[in-house]
Amino acid sequence: QVQLVESGGGVVQPGGSLRLSCVASGSIGLRNVMGWYRQAPEKERELVATKTSDGFTNYASSVKGRFTISRDNAKNMVFLQMSSLQSEDTAVYYCYYNTRGVRDESWGQGTQVTVSS
Questions:
Q1: Residues 43-73, buried b or exposed e (16+ Cβ, 10 A)?
Q2: What pLDDT digit, counting tens, does each position of 20-67 carry?
Q3: Which of 9, 72, 94, 99 gives 29 a disulfide partner, CB atoms 3.0 to 4.6 angstroms apart?
Q4: The CA-based dihedral angle spanning residues 104, 45, 3, 84, taken in that order and rounded to the nearest 10 degrees
Q5: In angstroms, rounded to a whole number, what is the distance separating the alpha carbons of residues 85 and 100?
Q6: In this predicted model, what pLDDT tens digit does every residue of 65-109 receive, in sequence order?
Q7: How far apart are CA 106 and CA 117, in angstroms?
Q8: In the prediction, which pLDDT does 104 show?
Q9: What is the rounded distance in angstroms from the CA atom of residue 62 to the CA atom of residue 88?
Q10: Regarding beta strands 111-115 and 10-12, do their DSSP bridges make them parallel or antiparallel, or are they unpaired?
Q11: What phi and psi, each to the nearest 5 degrees, are found at residue 95?
Q12: In terms of Cα–Cα distance, which of 96, 64, 66 is closest to 81?
């Protein structure tokens, strides 16, 4: 069982930046993937970015070049640095965790990001 807690959401103007943080606790597997998904009103949850414990990254095309995912494996943390934010980035952002080879996955409670002038 893995628990995730996100922080860092808030309101930011278009073009601004924001950094999200997530801390994982519990039974952390040596090989795993952590990342971020988001869900806007009336839309399905979508992948934003993920990063494996050995450094492989994956980004949604809509955020590539603007968002950067990073990890601190010693602290079981994952971060999402968001730059050049647009109104379309407004959503609830969820931290994600999965141990490789295990079907079950873990989700944080979500943190609201609102981009508005």
A1: eeeeebbbbbbeeeeebeeebeeebbbebee
A2: 999 999 999 999 999 999 999 999 999 999 999 999 999 999 999 999
A3: 99
A4: 140
A5: 31
A6: 999 999 999 999 999 999 999 999 999 999 999 999 988 899 999
A7: 33
A8: 86
A9: 10
A10: parallel
A11: -75, 145
A12: 66
Give the residue from 90, 93, 88 showing the smallest Cα distance to 36: 93
Which residue's entry shows tokens 């993937």? Answer: 33
**pLDDT of res. 1:** 87
pLDDT the model gives residue 12: 98
Going from the C-alpha of 6 to that of each of 92, 103, 110, the distances in angstroms are 11, 22, 6
Q: 62: which DSSP letter?
A: T
- Per the structure block, which two tokens stand in for 112? 């609201």
